[in-house]
Amino acid sequence: MGTVLKALLQQRHLQTVSAFNREYDRIAGEYEPELVGAGPKKAQFYRWLSGELTGLPYPHHRRILEAMFPGRSADELFEYCADPSHIRSTHEIRTPRGPFDKTMADVEAVFANRTDFLQAVPPRKLFEGARRIDMAGLSLNLLCQQYSDTDLVKLLESGTTLRCLFLDPSGTHIRTRETEEGHAPGVLSSLTELNMKCLVRAQKKYAEQRKNIIQIRTYDETVRFNITLVDSTVCVIQPYLPRARGVESPTLVARKSERAGVFDTFSEVFETMWSSAREVSPL
């Protein structure tokens, strides 16, 4: 018996104070570096698990906990939990893997195409409660076309940050991709420019609140993968196949785990592409 927080930590094998504080410092390092080392002491931590509290933890603890468990408020985390088996982690997209479970690394779902993926995991579900979203691909339709403006506003106002990496709409490689997919010249370029403009408008709107709430960059290279990273926890990967539209390609979902896997590979790919890309500033 204990809190919802206790049940969630047990699922992640973080129920000891040392393991929890390592994760606390990792999250703090991403969002509020000044809080690294500020995790709870042993007695305080076990009060969090038992629910023997006179009130919620300090605001800085609540912020880290909410980043650790996207989609759950501090109030929810400290609710009494009578049956831990009913508690499920956020961003859960698990499917049975069959006899190959031990060889699947950190891949937890595979879909035949993007349509099947979107039916199982619509953008609203994927992005719900996210604190950071990193995306790289061609036009980033998952965010810009298949996610409503209303939901995007709610996401940004809740404090979510975005890093969006588009294939350069004026570059040579997007023209090559148009030919490969059988589009008329300018079809993908126009769509990409439209999506970028939508994000630039949002970028300007929220710039006064937080300077880097939306960062936009472009690259001009052969487009190989569409990569979406949510809270440095879940990664959605889709290859760009020859002579096939993006929606027709298989889609993989990987979740960060203690051992190196697909998530780490594509997280590194994103960071490498991002570091060499060209920044797009608000007009």
Walk me through the structure.
The chain is α+β, with helices and mostly antiparallel strands and 283 residues long. It has helices spanning 4-11, 17-31, 42-50, 59-68, 74-77, 114-120, 123-127, 141-144, 149-157, 172-181, 187-206, 262-275, and strands at 2-3, 80-81, 107-111, 132-136, 161-167, 214-219, 225-230, 234-239, 251-255, 278-280. The protein has an 8-stranded mixed sheet, with helices on both faces. Strands 1-2 form a two-stranded antiparallel sheet. A hairpin with a 3-residue loop joins strand 7 and strand 8. The longest helix has 20 residues, at 187-206. The radius of gyration is 20 Å and the shape is elongated. It starts with a strand and ends with a strand. Residues 92-97 have low confidence and may be disordered.
Quickly describe the structure.
With 283 residues, this protein is α+β, with helices and mostly antiparallel strands.
List its traits.
alpha+beta, eight-stranded mixed beta sheet, 283 residues, two-stranded antiparallel sheet
Helical/strand content category: alpha+beta
State the shape.
Answer: elongated
Name the beta content range: 15-25%
Number of strands: 10
The largest pleated sheet is described as: 8 strands, mixed
Rg from Cα: 20 Å
Tally of contiguous helical segments: 12
Following the backbone from N to C, one meets helices and strands in this order, namely EHHHHHEEHHEHHEHHEEEEHE
**Percentage of helical residues?**
40-55%
Low-confidence stretches: 92-97
